[in-house]
Every structure is written in structure tokens, then in C-alpha cells.
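Worked problem 6 (solution included).
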Amino acid sequence: MDVKSLLHRALSMLGGLFATDIGIDLGTANTLVYVRGEGIVLCEPSVVAVAKDSHEVLKVGAEAKEMLGRTPGNIMAIRPLKDGVIADFDATEAMLRRFIEKANPRRYLASPRVVVAIPSGITEVEKRAVKESAQRAGAREVFLIEEPMAAAIGVGLPIADPSGNMIIDIGGGTTEIAVISLSGIVYSSSIKMGGDKWDQAILEHVRRTYNLLIGERTAEMIKMKIGSAYPLEKEITLEIRGRDMVTGLPKTVVVSSEEVREALRDHVHKIVESVRLALEKTPPELSADLIDKGIVLAGGGALLKGLDRLIAEETGLPVIIADDPITAVAIGTGKVLEEEEFLWRVTVPVKYE
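Solution. The predicted structure is:
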């Protein structure tokens, strides 16, 4: 290691005496913040409410999500990330600033170092956008880590060993699939498929089948309560409410788990096909390791009923759902912050041309 690098790290560590190191899982649906030494201190929806005329940020996170579909004409409730990447730079920066301020009460003494998890398939331009957003939001130093690597670390996989570890992280905007060995990603793929697409599929199914308009929050509730990827032992139903497209009046209908599963079938199948492709691309020696170790599911999408069973049936490998799949990536960013050498080994550089 050269003198310049040593000096850079020394100065970084000195700044850390006065600031809080923060790990951020910047998700399309939710953002989680991990504070070194404290654990996860914040888990809020990635939603920002802004005034249409002035573009002033009014609410962020849970308070803003409550406004989705319920705002007056002069207020917009928006999701600043789409498919795992920044769609609205200013709103993302404002959201990050609020979250960093909440997590770092000592920000007036020194700015924090921040590790941000990113999808594995994003471009250099998108990486720069994430890094610059975090810097402008108040970070002293920003490191980026690919989401499947952070998830693998978060669930406790032995990524440093010379053996294969397979992780599937299903978020709101993307599904990340990776095979990891010797602290590096041997194969990875990122598809724009996740919980948001599932919500949209349910919303469209209800509209086509029942002529009923429902909002994003209702579609998400249906997914969580009766959504499934594999036939249930006992199928269930749910009463939902929305607006009749013909009369324009409020209306109540009952939907079943079978029809919701059918609405999700094509989307779930895309994930299964991507998993099969990843296994085909994995080196034979690492594939052999997966016979015993199996595949680990992380991310909020891992909680879809029966998804583990479907993937196991399609691949012939054991599939394990992480103990707390929603927090896996955020915990991974935190663990990286705990070990200085690890931080520099698994984070990814950002190229400026």
C-alpha cells in the first residue's frame, strides 16, 4: 500500500472519531440505515412528498407514503428511485439528507462515512449519481457495495472461503442473483423485476377482472396477505375495496390467493429462469458446493409465500430464506464498516472519465 493510501485511511479514521459510520440500503421500495455500533436505526419507505410549485420537500419516508394516492393537487408523493436506480436526483438527495440527519445526531462535529448498497447491473453514470447524491446529502466519504455482496455478508455466508455461495436478493425494483467465492462475485445478474412489478400485476388483474380501480398500497397489501408463488395447503381470500370503473362509486370485491398467484406467475417465472441461467453459468466446482449449501433468499420478495419451494423444485437445490431477509443488505453494509480491510476489499470503485 502506498503512502498516499495510508494517509487517506488515517485521515478517514481520524474523522471517524467524531462522526458516525453509516450503511445505507437505498432501495426502490424502502431505505434502511445501519449505524456502526448501534445496528439498524431506520427503516422507512423510499417516498418523498414535494410541493408542485416550489418543489419544496414536505415529508420523507413513512409520512410521505401515507400521502400516496391521497394528496391534494398542489402536492406530489413520489418514489425517487425506479428499478433500483435514481430517477429523481433532487428528491433522492433530499431523502438521503433527512435519513442521514436522523441517523447521525453528531453531524455538526463531523460528516459521516457512508456505505451505500447498489444493484450489480447499474452503469458507471448511475454509480456516480448515487455517490454524488450521498456526498451532497452530507457524507464525508462514500463507498459503494453491490447489493448481492452486501446481502451475502448480512446473512452470514462465508464469502471469503474458496467455495461457492449463491444469494438471491429480491427487492422492490430489482432482483439480484450472484455466486460469490473468495470475497468476489464470480457471476451476477440483475433483472428489473421485484415487488413493485408484482404490485402492478395485481393492480392490473383487479382492474381487468373486476373493473375495480385500486391504489398501490392496496395492491401491496393483497400481495403480502394472500400472494403466493406456489399452491397453498389451504387457499385463502381477501375482501378489498376500490372504485368501480363503470359507476365511479366505491365497491367491494373478494379476491382469492389462486387468482393472485396466476397474476404473479409470469413475473415469478422470470426470476426462476434467471436463477437457472445463473446456475448454468456457474463454474462446475462452485456448482458442486451449492448441492450442499443451497441457495439463500434475501430481500422483501423472499417473503412471498412458496417462492422458496418453487425455486427448490425448479433447480433441485435446497433453498433457505434468510432469518430476516428485509434487513440483510443493510446489515451487510454495517458489517463492512466494522472491518476496515474488508471495507476496501469488497466495495466497488466509481470511475470518472
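Discussion: The domain at 195-263 is CATH 3.90.640.10 (Actin; Chain A, domain 4).
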